Amino acid sequence: MSVPTELGYTAKHEWVVIEDGVATVGITSFAAESLGDIVFVEAPEVGSEVSAGEPCGEVESTKSVSDIYSPVSGEVVEVNEALEDAPESVNSDPFGTGWLFRARVSEEPSDLLSAEEYTKLTEGEE
User: Which of 18, 20, 36, 84 is the most buried (most CB within 10 A)?
Assistant: First the structure.
């Protein structure tokens, strides 16, 4: 499993990178593999507020429906509209074209895991 070192992670298997006050959020390859084939993504709406640690959307796979938890608090400024037609890109490229949404961060998150910490967390779950 690939865990990019430049990203922050949550215990609920989301990743985040913050550039110029805007966070890009997605789910990790561990989460994508665990879910199986993703068939639908419901991201939060542009203009809505998300809160760190709170559910803000859903990912539906052939196995189950799982909540998306925001790793940051702020206003959603963009959603990955390409996922409407190609939700499987979350499986094939979770850290790239499979990103879920972007939010203007109202407060820097302080509880993100490093790649090393996230890898240790997931080793017990495989």
Answer: 18
